[in-house]
């Protein structure tokens, strides 16, 4: 018996839709009941939230496309200003519902222009007799735009007097959206994370035709047993499943085991899954490199990756700033004169070596240092004459943004900001080379 039923849509389309959105039938059924029939006015705005890779974008695209509902789909990260966003909605509206691309430019500077042009576009495309859906993906970006954009989208149906529903997709809750001045409250809907059973069902649908469904389902069960505790991302798990399946099949291909010898298959794939555990989300190497690594039986560290060589490309002076920051974090202040001055005079050993300094500073961790000390060490280790320009200070800010340096304390300190170096000794050695 089909899970999706609605009198306004053909049963064949609903059955096809059900096969495309496994484990999301209850959410789709709820959306269909909210949408109602094509000519009915739906709820003015719907807010859908959930963690990343919980199927929000995929379900909305599949639902609107399969049932051929007129819609506009915009990613707010790509169109990051209000003008770009409003113009993109109007451009897509020109091709709705025919689907043919229109090249005519649209200029929309204000929200009043958008409302006027929106009414004209809806009238020209003859969309008055059915609901138009505007889907804004990554809707948390709307909070960075003008203050009137989000409230206007929430009550666009009222502003335009047209049959339109705005759907906001986000990874954060509605309470972080709500303005202090108040606004129209959307209908909120939560997409929960996929459970391990849901992931098993979804990933098992991608089995290769040359192997049985039970064989691939057993492989997915092994994969989830290893990765489920550290990774719930469906896209990442699908990538890992495709990447390691050839290694799982090796005993079967060589004739050393059949598809039911799960113990032999597990012993063959276990060390390779442990290697893959080290590179979850990192993408240090390409898929072809990973396959070659598995074929040759090498260790992941033998390939040139980010963590293998701890190397990133930095501007010229940023490298020296990072080295100076490391020296300032791990060397006591009283050693600066000894290390960085040519004529520092005699330093008595008894005063220099104390009991607590016998412990390695690398075990004690980085110490905070002032900006003046960082620049003083920089000037001493760079051969050229470096002027304290805005370029140098902007590179320090960039190192903080990259989390290679961290700011210690508050920004309103009277004696200036203090920093810590957060990189390892191996990283600094690679930079220094």
From TrEMBL:
Sorted UniProt keywords: ATP-binding, DNA replication, Nucleotide-binding, Nucleus
GO MF: ATP binding; DNA replication origin binding
BP GO annotations: DNA replication initiation
InterPro entries to which the protein is assigned, alphabetical: AAA_16, ORC5, ORC5_C, ORC5_lid, P-loop_NTPase
Residue ranges constituting the Origin recognition complex subunit 5 C-terminal domain according to the UniProt record: 314-433
Subcellular location: Nucleus
Assembly and binders: Component of ORC, a complex composed of at least 6 subunits: ORC1, ORC2, ORC3, ORC4, ORC5 and ORC6. ORC is regulated in a cell-cycle dependent manner. It is sequentially assembled at the exit from anaphase of mitosis and disassembled as cells enter S phase.
ORC5 lid domain location: 216-283
Pfam families assigned to the protein according to its UniProt record, in alphabetical order: AAA_16, ORC5_C, ORC5_lid
Similarity section: Belongs to the ORC5 family.
Domain of life: Eukaryota
Function, in words: Component of the origin recognition complex (ORC) that binds origins of replication. DNA-binding is ATP-dependent. The specific DNA sequences that define origins of replication have not been identified yet. ORC is required to assemble the pre-replication complex necessary to initiate DNA replication.
The keyword Nucleotide-binding is assigned to this record: yes
Protein name in UniProt: Origin recognition complex subunit 5
Annotated GO CC locations: nuclear origin of replication recognition complex
Primary location group: nucleus
UniProt domain Orc1-like AAA ATPase: residue ranges: 21-167
């Amino acid at each position: 018996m089909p899970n999706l039923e609605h009198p306004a849509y053909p049963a064949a389309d609903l059955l096809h839709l059900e096969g495309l959105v496994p484990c999301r039938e209850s959410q789709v059924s709820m959306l269909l009941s909210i949408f109602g029939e094509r000519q009915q006015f739906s709820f003015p705005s719907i807010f859908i939230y959930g963690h990343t890779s919980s199927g929000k974008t995929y379900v909305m695209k599949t639902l609107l496309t399969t049932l051929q509902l007129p819609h506009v789909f915009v990613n707010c990260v790509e169109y990051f200003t209000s003008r770009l966003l409003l113009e993109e909605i109007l451009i897509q509206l020109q091709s709705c519902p025919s689907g043919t691309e229109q090249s005519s430019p649209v200029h929309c500077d204000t929200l009043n222009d958008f409302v006027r042009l929106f009414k004209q576009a809806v009238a020209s495309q003859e969309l008055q007799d059915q609901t138009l859906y505007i889907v804004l993906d990554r809707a948390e970006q709307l909070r960075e735009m003008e203050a009137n954009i989000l409230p206007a989208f929430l009550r666009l149906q009222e502003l335009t007097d047209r049959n339109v529903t705005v759907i906001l997709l986000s990874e954060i809750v509605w309470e972080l959206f709500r303005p202090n001045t108040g606004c129209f409250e959307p209908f909120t809907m939560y997409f929960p994370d996929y459970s391990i059973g849901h992931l098993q069902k979804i990933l098992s649908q991608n089995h290769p035709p040359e192997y049985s469904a039970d064989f691939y389902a057993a492989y997915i069960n092994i994969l989830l047993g290893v990765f489920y505790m550290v990774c719930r991302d469906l896209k990442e798990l699908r990538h890992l499943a495709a990447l390691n399946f050839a290694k799982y099949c090796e005993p079967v291909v060589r004739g050393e085991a059949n598809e039911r010898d799960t113990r032999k298959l597990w012993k063959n794939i276990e060390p390779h899954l442990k290697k893959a555990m080290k590179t979850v989300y990192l993408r240090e190497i390409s898929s072809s490199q990973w396959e070659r690594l598995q074929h040759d039986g090498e260790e992941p560290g033998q390939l040139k990756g980010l963590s293998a060589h701890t190397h990133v490309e930095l501007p010229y002076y940023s490298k020296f700033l990072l080295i100076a920051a490391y020296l300032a974090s791990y060397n006591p202040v009283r050693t600066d004169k000894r290390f960085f001055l040519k004529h520092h005079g005699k330093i008595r050993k008894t005063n220099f070596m104390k009991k607590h300094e016998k412990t390695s500073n690398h075990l004690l961790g980085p110490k905070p240092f002032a900006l003046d000390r960082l620049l003083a060490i920089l000037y001493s280790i760079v051969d050229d004459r470096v002027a304290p320009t805005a370029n140098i200070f902007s590179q320090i800010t960039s190192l903080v943004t990259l989390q290679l340096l961290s700011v210690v304390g508050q920004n309103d300190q009277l004696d200036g900001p203090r920093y810590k170096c957060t990189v390892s000794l191996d990283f600094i050695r690679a930079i220094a080379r």
